[in-house]
Specification:
Largest sheet: 4 strands, antiparallel
Helix content: 40-55%
Number of domains: 3
Strand order of the largest sheet: 3-8-10-9
Order of helices and strands: HHHEEHEEHHHEEHEEHHHEEHHHHHH
Number of helices: 17
CATH superfamily of the largest domain: 3-hydroxy-3-methylglutaryl-coenzyme A Reductase, Chain A, domain 2
Low-confidence stretches: 1-13
CATH topology of the largest domain: 3-hydroxy-3-methylglutaryl-coenzyme A Reductase, Chain A, domain 2
Distance between the termini: 44 Å
Radius of gyration: 24 Å
CATH architecture of the largest domain: Alpha-Beta Complex
Number of strands: 10
Shape: globular
Bound molecules: (R)-mevalonate
Length: about 450
């Protein structure tokens, strides 16, 4: 964003705070963002107007293409991450995810915003060898030839080396049943890195097999990229937890105090820490935010999902990726997860909406993108726990869901809100009821 950003947390006219944004129509929102982000409106239109991807380009991406499949592309607001405002593009089909993340981000920015950092930034690839006659000796030999293997791997990725990346270290694991696995940890710079690390694994494979005296097995990255982890933390002042909910949410019937909500959220965190059944849903709420950013930026959400859940289970028991505690009068949340995202190569090169996302975000490194995605995950988790711990999510959720049911029943742009309000009020959010209410509305006109 070329526009200067106001450093005060409540700046309305710049940065990621855009009061009333949700009240604008789609054309108005595009105009507003074009001005703020200094991006040509036509470019925004071309990137998102009808999904951004034409069938011809899609045909070059995958096989047997019939067409493309669109999802909503929205913007989460209010995010301040490491002292900097970010407009956050999110691609998601679930109502209330974007509003809830924006609402949580507003609470967090009042206490200074999110802090996020890469704990480490290395992607890992595996080379498996089986039928190893003497695994202990094989481990010893492989370890003593680490420098040679690293040099071999380095020669396989000259362009990455030119950009300052490359293989950094090697681990050797005896995983039992005469199988030995070599891990190569690679700095992939701003790439997600799958192709890079797979090339390294294939390049060193034969020498690994020779040194270990076994049969060469698989050579492929691990999605449990636990040496590429991001940590996001945030603080919320108790009083801000009672802020009015975002667009589409109803004000709560019962209104606990901020201090009570802090305790309720800590209790909800403890539930997830004790129970894998709850932890799975808690983590799903985090991935609502993370995946939406991953998709918007053209990254591999299956890789991210596989890594997040494997990491959640890596202690031998499935655990929440984020936890919440009281700190004085404040609530403090911490999230840590592996993330392998890129800002160069892959789908990014060809998908105009992914390119637009990166321009809106103004991230200049993959690390920054990973920090944003983790912060949005933590915001989504905060929003979900706050709603669940107070009056439940259904009322807010259903009133937003009512809009898509109204649209599915054929309500036009100027009818959706009224039909949605009517079916939500009746507590009957069905296509049939939406059809009846639409007919009634048209009769009254
Ligand atoms: C729904 O998409 C996500 C939640 O179930 C997350 C949670 O339970 O924490 C609300």
């Amino acid at each position: 964003m070329t526009q200067s950003r106001d450093s005060s947390p409540d700046a309305d006219a710049s940065g990621s705070r855009i009061p009333g944004f949700y009240k604008l129509d789609i054309a108005g929102r595009r105009k507003e963002i074009a001005t703020r982000a200094a991006i040509d409106e036509q470019e925004i239109l071309a990137a998102v107007a009808s999904g951004g991807l034409d069938a011809g380009t899609a045909d070059k991406l995958v096989e047997n293409v019939l067409g493309t499949y669109s999802l909503p592309f929205g913007l989460a607001l209010n995010f301040r991450i490491n002292g900097r405002d970010r407009l956050v593009p999110m691609v998601v089909e679930e109502p209330s995810v974007i509003a809830a993340a924006s609402n949580a981000a507003k609470m967090v920015r009042a206490a200074g915003g999110f802090c996020a950092e890469m704990v480490e930034s290395l992607m890992t690839t595996q080379v498996e060898v089986y039928e190893v006659r003497d695994p202990a000796r094989a481990v010893e030999r492989l370890e003593s030839h680490a420098a040679e293997l690293l040099a071999l791997g380095t020669r396989a990725v000259p362009n990455l080396v030119e950009r300052g990346g490359g293989p950094r270290s090697i681990d050797v694991r005896d995983i039992g049943q005469d199988r030995v696995v070599v891990h190569v940890h690679v700095d992939c710079r701003d790439a997600m890195g799958a192709n890079l690390v797979n090339s390294i694994a294939e390049a060193i494979g034969p020498r690994v097999a020779e040194l270990s005296g076994g049969t060469l097995g698989l050579r492929i990255l691990t999605n449990l990229c636990d040496r590429r982890r991001v940590r996001a933390t945030c603080r919320v002042h108790a009083k801000d937890l009672t802020l009015a909910p975002g667009p589409g949410s109803e004000p709560p019937r019962v209104t606990p105090t901020g201090a009570e909500i802090v305790d309720l959220i800590v209790e909800a965190s403890r539930f997830a820490e004790l129970d894998p059944y709850r932890a799975a849903t808690h983590n799903k709420g985090i991935m609502n935010g993370v995946d939406a950013v991953v998709l918007a930026t053209g990254n591999d959400f299956r890789a991210v999902e596989a890594g997040a859940h494997a990491y959640a289970a890596s202690s031998g028991r499935y655990r929440p990726l984020a936890t919440w505690r009281r700190d004085g009068a404040d609530l403090v949340g911490t999230l840590e997860l592996p993330l392998s995202l890129g800002i160069v190569g892959g789908t990014l090169r060809v998908h105009p909406a992914a390119r637009l996302s990166l321009r809106l975000l103004e991230v200049t490194t993959a690390g920054e993108l990973q920090e944003v995605a983790a912060s949005v995950g933590l915001a989504s988790n905060l929003a979900a726990l706050r709603a669940l711990a107070t009056e439940g999510i259904q009322r807010g959720h259903m009133s937003l869901h009512a809009r898509s049911v109204a649209a599915a029943a054929g309500a036009g742009d100027d009818e959706v809100e009224r039909v949605a309000a009517a079916i939500a009020e009746l507590g009957s959010i069905t296509l049939e009821e939406a059809g009846r209410q639409l007919a009634k509305l048209r009769e009254e006109r």
